[in-house]
Amino acid sequence: MTPFQPVEPYDWDALLALIKRAFAGMEGRIDPPSSLHKVKAQDLAQYPGEVWVIGKPPRACMVLTPKPHALHLGRLSVDPPWQRKGYAHILINHAESRARALGLPALELQSRIELVENHAIFFALGFKQTGATTHEGFSSPTSLVFTKTI
Is residue 5 part of a domain? Predict the structure, then answer.
């Protein structure tokens, strides 16, 4: 399946529901809790970067945000029934194409330290750990930064 950018009218509620299902496994595992509970469907509709989706109804999605040094890949989500079927790989390949089109040399994403199974997926997809970030109020890193050179 080919990723597409949703256009109005679009069922943003269905897309947010997919993201919440995909991220549900981290509830109670990460500290601090995910900011996802603050996200509204309208936030996705008005996202200042690019939203890409696979499937109608949506099976997988990501948001892309250009930065000076890389294309940031966020909210990479695959609905649980569709996981392990290549959707994340399709989205990351598409993100690479978008980075090239935007003249950016790399992809970048973040993953919470506790989500080691996600780290393994990112390593398998060609990412390298390049840093760590710390949420406000914490004394040690809470997220890892992964980069893939294009």
Answer: no
Q: Please report, for the domain that includes residue 16, its CATH number.
A: 3.40.630.30
Instruction: For residue 6, tell me if it sits in a domain.
Output: no
Separation of CA 117 from chain center:
15
Q: How far apart are the first and last CA of the chain?
A: 22
Contact 1, 90 (CB under 8 A): yes
Per-residue pLDDT of the chain (150 residues; tens, 9 = 90+): 899 999 999 999 999 999 999 999 888 899 998 998 899 999 999 999 999 999 999 999 999 999 999 999 999 999 999 999 999 999 999 999 999 999 999 999 999 999 999 999 999 999 999 999 999 999 999 999 999 999
Answer yes or no: pTM beyond 0.70.
Answer: yes
Amino acid (1-letter code) at residue 150:
I
Q: Can you tell me the distance from the alpha carbon of 40 to that of 136, in angstroms, rounded to the nearest whole number?
A: 23
